Amino acid sequence: MGRFYTNYSMFTGPREPDSDNLIECQTPDMSSNGVALLCKLYPKSARKSERVLELLGRGAREYYRKPEAHCSTWCYFTPSSPKTNDDLVIAGLEVYDRRSALQAQVDDPEYFQAYHQAVKAEDLYAKGEELVAWYQTSGFLAREQHSIPFGGCLVFLTKLICKDRDEVLKLLDDFVPFVRAQEPEILTYALFTRPKAPKEVLLFGRCIDEKAAHAHSVTSQHTAVVEKLVKLVENDLATSTSMWHEVDDSFVSNKAGGTQVLKDSRL
């Protein structure tokens, strides 16, 4: 995939998912059976990207929001500044409270199988999907039951290649309480790892807008974290973060099916 960055970085100012816990009290227990799936899809054109998003949105509304889907988070996003067809990518993070939910969706003919049939029939992809399983270790997907608003937020993904992953996790874990208590416009701040890549840490974050992201990046607490982090990682922090726009059908919650409960409560 191409790289997509705004004028600042959060840390400077495939076919089959590989198999590899939230410390916050209200989050799904992913230490035993839960799993998060990071997906990247590569549409052939801007028009076909719109079609992919249309198909994905239908599944989000009619399948993934159901409690029986065991999906607490279905967050898809597009690059903040795509320039050419070569830059076209749709990414998403799906969080399930049990691994069996992944197989259940594969077996579903009405949405999952129909989606892939449409992708093939309409020749929507330039290349195959990339799917990687991650497991949440700390941070928060949502401060309460739901991370509202859904859709339209700015998403940031940071991938760290650690010299010592435990040290990196401890540093970021110590930073999470500040984010949670002092930065209400940071809606999501969750850390993930995976056994098949023991040096990697994935940070998945959501915020209200670019202004909130910039404000987060220039706090003295964040600056102090960066000064320590740069000594603990092998990759370049200046290019470790990609910025995305969340699509409207996304939802981020701490409870599978929670968004349906939220919807019903507004009737």
Description:
The protein is an alpha+beta fold and 267 residues long. It has seven helices and nine strands. Strand 6 and strand 7 form a beta hairpin. The longest helix has 19 residues, at 46-64. The chain is globular, with a radius of gyration of 18 Å. The model is unreliable at 1-10 and 12-32 (pLDDT under 50). It comes from Pseudocercospora musae. InterPro entries: Dimeric_a/b-barrel. This is ABM domain-containing protein.
The major sheet is characterized as: 8 strands, antiparallel, barrel
Question: What is the CATH topology?
Answer: Alpha-Beta Plaits
Strand percentage, roughly?
25-35%
Classified by CATH, the class is: Alpha Beta
Contiguous low-pLDDT stretches (5 residues minimum) are: 1-10, 12-32
Features:
9 strands; Alpha-Beta Plaits; single chain; globular; alpha+beta; 267 residues; eight-stranded antiparallel barrel; disordered N terminus
Question: Helices and strands in order, then pairings?
Answer:
Elements: E1 35-43, H1 46-64, E2 71-79, E3 90-96, H2 100-106, H3 109-121, E4 125-140, E5 154-161, H4 165-182, E6 186-193, E7 200-207, H5 210-217, H6 220-229, E8 241-246, E9 251-252, H7 258-265
Antiparallel strand pairs: 1-3, 1-4, 2-3, 2-8, 2-9, 4-6, 5-7, 5-8, 6-7
What's the gist of this structure?
The protein is of the alpha+beta class.
